[in-house]
C-alpha cells in the first residue's frame, strides 16, 4: 500500500520542551531505522528496530533521545529537553528483510524539527 | 569505521549533457549500495540498489556501476533534464538489516 509516513512534517519547539516524532512504516516491513539529517549533510544513523526489538541504538547522540516500537509497526522517536543542536530533519526508513532479500530501505518525507 | 565521500559537492550542467556522479567508500566489505535522490524539503527517493555481487544496475536514463574492490560507485544520468536538478546521495550497508552510511551528497543543477 502506501509508503512510509511521518508526522508531524514540521515541528517548532522551544528549548527545553519534549517532542515526539511518529513513523508509520510500510505494512509488513520488519526493519525500521531512524536517521538525523543536518542542513546540507547526508543522513546519519540514530537507531534500528527489527520488529519490536531495538537492536542498535549506537547513533543516538545522548540519553535525551529515546525510541520505541512496542508492537513492531509504528515507531516513536522522543527527544527530551530539546536543545538548539537538535534542530534537523529526522528521517524514518523501513525495509522488508527476509533472508536473502535486496534489503532496500524506503524513506518517509521526514520531520523538520526547529528548536528556538 | 566506514566513510563515504561524494565528489563534487555541487555540479551545474546545461540541459542535455550527461551527468557523472562519484561515490567512494573506505571499507569494501559492503552488502549493498543505494543511490537516492532528494528534492529540497523532501525525503529520499531510492533510485538504484546494487548488491555487492553485481557490477551495475540500470533504470531508464540512470546507470550505476560498482567496483567494490576499489571502493567506488558511479551514477550516470544520460541526457540530463531540468527535472533532474536535486541532491543525489549514495549510501552503503555492511549487512542485511544494517544501517546505511551516507555520503554528503552531490547537489546537481541542470540549466535549461
Please provide a brief summary of the model.
The complex is a heterodimer of chains A (116) and B (112). Chain A has 116 residues and is mainly beta.
Report the end-to-end length of chain A measured between terminal Cα atoms.
37 Å
Shape of chain A: globular
Low-pLDDT sequence parts of chain B = none
Based on Cα principal axes, name the global outline of chain B.
Answer: globular
Major sheet summary line of chain A: 7 strands, mixed
Write structural notes for this entry.
The complex is a heterodimer of chains A (116) and B (112). Chain A is 0% helix and 47% strand. Chain A contains no helices and 11 strands. In chain A, the strands form 2 sheets. In chain A, strands 2, 4, 5, 6, 9, 10 and 11 form a 7-stranded mixed beta sheet that branches. In chain A, strand 4 (31-37) and strand 5 form a beta hairpin. Chain A is globular. In chain B, 0% of the residues lie in helices and 57% in strands. In chain B, strands 2, 4, 5, 9, 10 and 11 form a 6-stranded mixed beta sheet that branches. In chain B, strands 1-3-8-7-6 form a 5-stranded antiparallel beta sheet, with no helix packed on it. The chains are: A mainly beta (116), B mainly beta (112).
Features:
heterodimer, A: 116 residues, mainly beta, seven-stranded mixed beta sheet, four-stranded antiparallel beta sheet, 0% helix, B: 112 residues, six-stranded mixed beta sheet, five-stranded antiparallel beta sheet, 11 strands, 57% strand, globular
Amino acid at each position: 500500500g502506501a509508503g512510509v509516513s511521518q508526522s508531524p512534517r514540521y515541528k517548532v519547539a522551544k528549548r527545553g520542551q519534549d517532542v515526539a516524532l511518529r513513523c508509520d512504516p510500510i505494512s509488513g516491513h520488519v526493519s525500521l531505522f531512524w536517521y538525523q539529517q543536518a542542513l546540507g549533510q547526508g543522513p546519519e544513523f540514530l537507531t534500528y528496530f527489527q520488529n519490536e526489538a531495538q537492536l542498535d541504538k549506537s547513533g543516538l547522540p545522548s540519553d535525551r533521545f529515546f525510541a520505541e516500537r512496542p508492537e513492531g509497526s509504528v515507531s516513536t522517536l522522543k527527544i527530551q529537553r530539546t536543545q538548539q543542536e537538535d534542530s534537523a530533519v529526522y528521517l524514518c526508513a523501513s525495509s522488508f528483510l527476509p533472508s536473502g532479500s535486496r534489503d532496500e530501505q524506503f524513506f518517509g518525507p521526514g520531520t523538520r524539527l526547529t528548536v528556538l | 569505521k566506514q566513510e563515504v565521500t561524494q565528489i563534487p559537492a555541487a555540479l551545474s550542467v546545461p540541459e542535455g549533457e550527461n551527468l557523472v556522479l562519484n561515490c567512494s567508500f573506505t571499507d569494501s566489505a559492503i552488502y549493498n549500495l543505494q543511490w537516492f535522490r532528494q528534492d529540497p524539503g523532501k525525503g529520499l527517493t531510492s533510485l538504484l540498489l546494487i548488491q555487492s555481487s553485481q557490477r551495475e544496475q540500470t533504470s531508464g536514463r540512470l546507470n550505476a556501476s560498482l567496483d567494490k574492490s576499489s571502493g567506488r560507485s558511479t551514477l550516470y544520468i544520460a541526457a540530463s533534464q531540468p527535472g533532474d536538478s536535486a541532491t543525489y546521495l549514495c549510501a552503503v550497508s555492511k549487512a542485511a538489516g544494517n544501517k546505511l552510511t551516507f555520503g554528503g551528497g552531490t547537489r546537481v543543477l541542470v540549466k535549461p
